[in-house]
Write a structure and sequence with these properties.
By secondary structure, the chain is mainly alpha-helical. The chain is 70% helix and 0% strand. It has helices at residues 6-17, 19-34, 38-41, 54-63, 66-85, 89-99, 104-111, 115-135. The radius of gyration is 20 Å and the shape is globular.
Length: 145
């Protein structure tokens, strides 16, 4: 019996598999905005509202990108998941499966576990990630399957 809908499960796994790529994208975006000239960030003219202040414009640009904001929330979620499972066998599975991208059979052999245990642990990791993502407003679960 599945607790999460397949689409939500796959979405969470996508973010786990792409954790390092997303972090890199966020850092590149920040660097681009912080090192950009006035033309890239210009959003208005001068005046009392400080739209002519380049530092303020950069801060506005960093704070107003919805996609980056969503990615930053996912990064926080995954970092909490890493911390939660740190130092455990499930933490090793998390590292090996999602970050090192080893295959199921290799992980089972290295951790000396059966396939059933592998899938149980993997599901626990994804479910814990889903609970945190719900807290951050990243996913909505309309119904429990």
């Amino acid at each position: 019996m599945a607790v999460l809908e397949r689409s939500i499960y796959k979405k969470i796994e996508w973010y786990l598999f792409n954790y390092f790529n997303i972090r890199r994208e966020i850092n590149e975006y920040r660097d681009e905005v912080l090192n950009s000239g006035r033309q890239l960030i210009e959003q208005g003219g001068g005046g009392i509202s400080r739209h002519s202040d380049p530092t303020a414009l950069k801060a506005i640009k960093l704070a107003s990108n919805a996609e980056i904001e969503k990615y930053e929330k996912w990064i926080k979620v995954i970092e909490k998941v890493i911390e939660h499972f740190k130092g455990t066998e499930k933490g090793k599975l998390l590292q090996m499966r999602y970050f090192d991208e080893y295959a199921e059979r290799y992980i089972c052999n290295k951790l000396h576990i059966e396939r059933t245990t592998y899938f149980t642990w993997k599901n626990e990791i994804v479910l814990y990630t889903a609970m945190l993502a719900i807290q951050y407003g990243l996913i909505k679960v309309d119904r429990i399957a």
